[in-house]
Design brief:
By secondary structure, this protein is mainly β. It is 0% helix and 49% strand. The chain contains no helices and ten strands. The strands form two sheets. It has a six-stranded mixed sheet with strand order 2-10-9-4-5-6, with no helix packed on it. It has a four-stranded antiparallel sheet with strand order 1-3-8-7, with no helix packed on it.
Length: 113
């Protein structure tokens, strides 16, 4: 299983970023996927989850209404559109198979003025 997140960066509060996660080594199109984040000195936080067919999505209360998870099964890619970013969104973001603990290489998101 390989999961490679990208698209992070440094933005000002109120800005937007779109994260991508390229998946390989498993049948992506039948696998529920999640985004998790981990801020320095804190434990991992589940951000959002999407079912294999995109029919069901879930969000942490801290990001609901600002973040949108999506996927393209034809491209084996998971996305996270992040709008109205806040300083507390600063973290390393990882994608993972929802039902498994392992996660791939993350991408850093920094929100500051």
């Amino acid at each position: 299983v390989q999961l490679q997140a990208s698209g992070g960066g440094s933005v000002q509060p109120g800005g937007s970023l779109r994260l991508s996660c390229a998946a390989s080594g498993f049948i992506f199109g039948v696998t529920a996927m999640s985004w998790v984040r981990q801020a320095p000195g804190k434990g991992p936080e589940s951000v959002s989850t999407i079912s294999y067919d995109s029919r069901t999505t879930e969000y942490a209360s801290s990001v609901r209404g600002r973040f949108t998870i999506s996927r393209d099964n034809a491209k084996n890619t998971l996305y996270l559109q992040m709008n109205n970013l806040l300083p507390e969104d600063t973290a390393t973001y990882y994608c993972k198979q929802t039902d498994f603990d392992s996660r791939g290489q993350g991408t850093q998101v920094t929100v500051s003025s």
